[in-house]
Design goal:
This protein is globular. The chain contains twelve helices and no strands. The chain folds into two domains: 22-131, Tetratricopeptide repeat domain (Serine Threonine Protein Phosphatase 5, Tetratricopeptide repeat, Alpha Horseshoe), CATH 1.25.40.10; 147-253, Serine Threonine Protein Phosphatase 5, Tetratricopeptide repeat. By secondary structure, the protein is mainly α. 41% of the residues are buried. The longest helix is centred in the middle third of the chain and has 21 residues, at 81-101. 74% of the residues lie in helices and 0% in strands. The chain has helices spanning 6-17, 23-35, 40-56, 61-76, 81-101, 106-121, 126-145, 150-162, 172-185, 190-202, 206-218, 226-245.
Length: 253
């Protein structure tokens, strides 16, 4: 279009600046909010902005992975049981879509598995046991895609450690195996060391567990995992204090 007057140019500029925010700018805003996710309100803001971005441009399959991860964080940081249950429901739905749209993505399968576990924790009965088994299958798919994806190994270790062996997937030996693989694959992720320490305590290897916990406390957070590392360091300090008083399995809870 050829602009023949200053008034015409002004009209075009006004049209440009009054257009709705693009999906790109929404994603930028969401990323900025996610960077401040230590504040629960910022996590929810990021979720809202990513959802808006998907409405404007549905052809962004990777955003479903980010949404699932963010909703999982909302579950963990919500003190009210009713709200946590609602977030878990939303995270599971987002995770299902993430896997459908990113079938070859290890993180998609891992975050879906985490959401399934959170859903199971907020529900009881046969459905929750079924959800745990589905989560383990999803994590095995993640590891098949990327055998060095430490986060998937860590989650698998936690499922094997926490689940009862009589009616579910519980297996303390598998828990220790995958926790060790998590640390070997991603040694700069604090949660992997924490899962390994818990598995070691379950095997009555308190000294080795203490070494892992002390390592966590001294870690410099990875740039993309600062709030998570700080939280893991707090958990490690509590677990160390527990082990000083009680060498039993209760310290792994």
């Amino acid at each position: 279009m050829k602009i023949n007057s200053f008034a015409g140019m002004t009209a075009v500029c006004l049209l440009f600046f009054t257009m709705p925010a693009s999906a790109t700018s929404l994603n930028d805003q969401a990323t900025q909010a996610w960077d401040k996710r230590a504040d629960s309100a910022e996590t929810e803001k990021a979720i809202h902005l990513w959802q808006q971005s998907l409405k404007e441009n549905p052809d962004q399959p990777d955003l479903w992975i980010r949404l699932t991860e963010a909703m999982g964080r909302a579950v963990r940081n919500t003190p009210k049981k009713t709200a946590a249950k609602q977030w878990a429901q939303r995270a599971r739905a987002a995770g299902k879509t993430a896997v459908e749209q990113n079938p070859k993505s290890a993180p998609a399968h891992a975050f879906f598995a985490e959401a399934l576990g959170q859903w199971a924790n907020t529900h009881k009965g046969f459905a929750s046991l079924k959800s745990v088994k589905q989560a383990v299958r999803s994590l095995n798919r993640a590891i098949a895609i990327d055998p060095k994806y430490g986060y998937a190994h860590m989650l698998l270790a936690e499922f094997y450690r926490k689940a009862p062996s009589s009616v579910s997937v519980g297996d303390k030996d598998k828990a220790l195996h995958h926790a060790r693989l998590a640390v070997e694959s991603e040694p700069d992720r604090a949660i992997n060391h924490l899962a390994y320490a818990r598995a070691l305590v379950e095997h009555k290897e308190s000294r080795a567990a203490i070494e892992q916990l002390q390592f966590i406390v001294k870690m410099n957070p990875r740039a993309d995992l600062v709030p998570e590392t700080r939280a893991n360091q707090n958990d490690a300090k509590k677990m160390l204090a527990c082990l000083e008083k009680d060498k039993g399995k209760t310290c792994a809870d």
